[in-house]
Design goal:
Low-confidence stretches: 1-47, 233-237, 373-382, 393-401
Shape: elongated
Distance between the termini: 56 Å
Mean pLDDT: 78
Number of helices: 7
Strand order of the largest sheet: 12-20-19-15-16-18
């Protein structure tokens, strides 16, 4: 039996873990699509995009030479997953892991197992794709098609996850493929081994994903995977989740970015904000722009707007940032790449709105207006000046620290 410690450079691991027991039933003579069939199906459905990525495994001693080719069109997705290094006579299954809203993952466009904790935001669906017994050459060739809104092969309920409704947007979804070994074929159980997650497994969850290679009867484990990122342009216009520093506080609202070659339009709505009373407060909204997700700091910060919150405790802003223009630019250089720049939006309170029109103007137009006695001359208007809402278009842990640019 082989074992290893999981070490992946980008921590792109997958959860197909062991807290469910279920066996799918299907016909005894299950046959996968072959290469020519997958091409025909894809072409007949007017393929819009196609990309091929390498198959990989974090298990020490398993270095697959394989690829996964994914065809996307308006009706669904079709995959051909081919790899060597498999054991002749062993049963294997292939699984879809569909991230319908990859922009809501902790790292947008790079979903990991940690994002299963926010299943309702990322709309993830885990489904059976294909399965068969590998022949003498040790090469596995798996192909399958998944239609839009088809969740008939979903195992979400077994994870305790809410249904996502299958594949919702073929171009946008981030698609992971996971290959699972069910060990040597077992007479009388082959159909279960190649059509279910737990078929032929004495203890289906004895091995955490990608830790060991099953080599005995009754052993099962996830061993090889491939990652197909979603097409970024297809989700530029989606809504970002709004959150607070308290992970248990849920905010009813969204931040919607509508991008074009010339500008980014921002629609921010937060309603009935819980546990935070901002009634009568002067509140400003700011957009932090990053050239890419790995940037150490924003290259630009724009003021989106400012207003005095009313008794509804709602915040609604609409604005536009124009490429190359300095209007409402507070820090850095003007917007460079409306289509690709990463964005984080923050809301900041200046405390109760001042009755002095000059001070109120500063509260609503500058990062710290109303936040010091040098400005107000009175303790009456000094406030914590807290950033209290975030629109999570960027990785929280890496980018929240950048609010210091508003100080």
């Amino acid at each position: 039996m082989k074992s290893s410690k999981i070490t992946i450079k980008k921590n792109l691991t997958f959860i197909l873990t062991g807290f469910f027991i279920f066996i799918f039933s299907s016909c005894e003579d299950s046959i996968d699509l072959q290469n020519d069939e997958i091409d025909n199906i894809a072409q007949s459905k007017s393929v819009n995009s196609k990309n091929t990525v390498p198959a990989f495994s974090p298990i020490v001693g398993l270095d697959p030479n394989g690829t996964s080719t994914l065809h996307r069109n308006e009706n669904g997705i079709t995959v051909n997953f081919k790899t060597d290094g498999l054991t002749p006579g062993y049963a294997y299954t292939l699984w879809w892991v569909i991230w319908n809203n990859p922009e809501n993952c902790t790292v947008p466009g790079a979903c990991t197992d940690a994002d299963f904790a926010n299943a309702d935001l990322v709309n993830v669906e885990v489904l059976f794709a294909a399965g068969h017994v590998v022949g003498n050459n040790g090469i596995g060739n798996f192909s399958a098609h998944l239609n839009l809104n088809d969740d008939s092969e979903s195992i979400n309920a077994l994870f305790g996850l809410p249904s996502a409704g299958g594949l919702l947007n073929a171009q946008k979804a981030e698609v992971h493929l996971v290959l699972r070994s069910h060990g040597p074929k077992i007479p009388g159980m082959v159909n279960e081994q190649i059509n279910s997650y737990v078929g032929g497994c004495d203890d289906p969850f004895a091995f955490p994903p990608f830790t060991e290679i099953p080599d005995e009867n009754g052993e099962c484990g996830d061993i090889i995977a491939a990652i197909h990122p979603g097409n970024y342009d297809s989700y530029d216009k989606n809504n970002f989740t709004i959150s607070t520093d308290d992970p248990d506080t849920k905010v009813d609202g969204f931040a919607k970015l509508k991008r074009s070659k010339k500008n980014i339009r921002i629609n921010f709505e937060a309603r009935n904000i819980p546990n935070i009373d901002i009634s009568g407060h002067a509140v400003t909204l700011w957009a932090f722009l990053y050239r890419d997700i790995n940037s150490d700091e924003p290259y630009s910060i724009y003021r989106i707007g400012g207003k005095v919150s009313d008794s509804s405790n709602d915040l609604i802003f609409e604005s536009k940032i124009v490429k190359g223009e300095s209007k409402d630019l507070w820090y850095g250089s003007p917007l460079e790449n409306p289509k690709t720049d990463f964005v984080m939006i923050v809301a900041k309170t200046k405390g109760l709105a001042s009755s002095d029109s000059t001070i109120l103007e500063q509260q609503l137009t500058t990062p710290n207006g109303g936040c010091s006695d040098e400005l107000t001359g009175s303790i009456e208007y000094i406030s914590p000046c807290n950033v209290f809402l975030y629109a999570l278009g960027l990785k929280e842990d890496d980018k929240h620290q950048d609010i210091n640019f508003l100080d």
